[in-house]
Amino acid sequence: MKTYKVLTINPGSTSTKIALFEGETCVFSKNVSHDANELAKYERIADQLPYRRNMILDLLSEANIALDDVDVFVGRGGGLLAMEGGTYEVTDLMLEHARNMQNGVIHPAALGSQLAHEFATKYDAKAMVVNPPDVDELQDLARMTGIKGVNRVIHLHALNLKETAIRHSKNVLNKKYEECNFIVCHIGGGVSVSAHRQGKMVDGFDIVGGEGPMAPTRCGSISVADLLSYMKKNNYTVDDVKPLLTKSGGFVSHVGISDALELTNRASQGDHYAEMLWNTMIYQIEKCIGSMAAVLHGQVDGILLGGGMVYNQDLVRQITDTCSFIAPVSAYPGEFEMEAMAAGAIRVLNGEEELKQYTGKVCWSGFEWDS
C-alpha cells in the first residue's frame, strides 16, 4: 500500500499550525505565530490569505521542505453550512461559502480550505477538509426544544471527537468506528461531551450557544430565568452577556483566569473557592456524560476523554470513579487535530472511506411543521 504524503493546515485566530505527514508519521510540524499588528492591517479575514500562505511557504523553504510530491493538502475547514461528518473535496462551492463565511461564524478556520486549494493548485495535488466545525449528525429527538420554531444545533470539537473514537475503535477494540457506541469528551479551553452511535455523533451540547458543562471561559448551561434576572439586576443587554458563552464565563467569571493549571495550583494551596470551582466543572462534565449514556440506552463501549485538561490526573480519576459503572474510561490527553486531518485524507486515498461532496445545503433544515 502506498505511503501518501499529506500537508495539513489549521488556521487559528493568532497562528497557523502546519504539519507534514508521510503516512501516519508526522515528519514536520510548526505553529506559525502571527503578529497581531500585522493581522490588524487586514479589514477582513479573507484578506489574510496571501499573508498566511506566504508565511507558510517561507517557513517550509527555511526547513528545506519541498511540496512537489505532496499527494493532498488538507485544510481545517470553516464558514460552511451544517453537514454530515466525513472527508470532503474542496470545490468551488465550498470555497465560495468559506470566503463568505456562509454560516455566519467569523473565524480564520474558514481560510483552511482556501489555503489547501491554493497549495493543491500550485503543486497539482488534491485538496480536502475533514470533519469541519459544522458537522451536524443529530438524531431528530435531539433537535426539538420547548419553544416552537427554536430547534437545537450543536457546535463541538467534531474533528478531535471523531478521531479519538476512530482510533480507540481500531487500536483498542479492533473494530470499526461504525460498529461502536461511545461517549466522547474534549476537555480543554472548551468542553464538548457527545454521544456517538455506530459512526454518527447523534447528540451533544452546543458549547458556542451556552449548553453543557462550564469551561475555563464558558458559562455552560444555566437557568433561563436566572439569566434574565441577572440581566435585569445589572441592567445588561444581550450584547453585554453574550461573551459569557465563550469568552468571559466559567473560570474567568469567577476568579478572572482561564488557566486550569493555575486554578488547580491555587486549589492545592488551600484556596477553597478555586477547589470548588474545579470540582464543580468536573461534576458538570460527569452529569453530561450520564445524559449521553441515556441517549445510547446504556449500550456504551467506552467513555473517551481528550483535550489539554486530560493531562490532569485528578480530573481523569474523578471522572473514572464516577462514570466507570457506565463503561470503561480511557484518557487521550491533548488533541489529534493535525493527525485527524491527515488520517481522514489517507482513508479516502486508501479506499477505506468515500470522498464526500459539499452540497451547500444544510443537512437538516427544520421539521415539516416548522414551515
Features:
5-stranded mixed β-sheet; globular; Nucleotidyltransferase, domain 5; 6-stranded mixed β-sheet; alpha/beta; 371 residues; 12 helices
Could you describe the 3D structure shown?
Helix content is 36%, strand content 18%. It has 371 residues and is of the alpha/beta class. The chain has two domains: 161 residues, Nucleotidyltransferase, domain 5, CATH 3.30.420; 177 residues, Nucleotidyltransferase, domain 5 (2-Layer Sandwich). Strand 8 and strand 9 form a beta hairpin. It is globular. The termini are far apart.
Outline of the structure:
This protein has 371 residues and is of the alpha/beta class. The chain has helices at residues 36-39, 49-62, 92-100, 111-123, 158-171, 224-234, 238-241, 250-255, 260-268, 272-295, 313-323, 337-349, and strands spanning 5-11, 15-22, 25-33, 72-75, 87-89, 126-130, 181-187, 191-197, 200-204, 302-307, 329-333.
